[in-house]
Please model this.
Amino acid sequence: MSENLLEVRDVRKSFRVPHAGKNKLCALDGISLDLARGETLGLVGESGCGKSTLARTLMMLERPDAGTVRFDGVDPFTLAGAELLKFRSRVQMVFQDPYASLNSQMSAAEIIAEPWRSHKGLIKNRQDRDMRVRGLLDLVGLGAKAAD
Ligand SMILES: Nc1ncnc2c1ncn2[C@@H]1O[C@H](COP(=O)(O)OP(=O)(O)OP(=O)(O)O)[C@@H](O)[C@H]1O
Ligand SMILES: [Mg+2]
Model:
């Protein structure tokens, strides 16, 4: 078991942007950080400084141009098949724009339950899943809105 849950080393990511010719927009310019198990990290910075790009890279939604990411001692970009599915069940991102990331046709309870429906091994029993969903909604005072 790796000492740090997350180790990021010199991660770089640039994007091609229209009208910039060969010049690329540098979103991540050599990011390094460690995160221990149970530790909470807040990233703060002005709009456009690369917070979401870093989060997307850690989630494997962007591939870094350079540098390494290790989650629990493993580079997630080397994973495939069942191991990749397991990684996906252990990391989660709450996207900042609910209109772009949440399905307005689904209730709050359905949206919370969706990852557990996708990763069936995590909570096998439907009643247990519903109880967990209800508990989470109650935690933030939304129990009465479960079906909305
Ligand atoms: N897919 C993309 N294509 C081109 N440029 C991108 C892309 N994704 C991000 N960028 C650019 O990379 C830079 C970093 O963007 P990012 O969304 O990571 O910033 P942020 O810190 O999350 O900003 P905010 O606080 O507004 O959410 C910005 O200049 C953004 O326009
Ligand atoms: Mg952002």
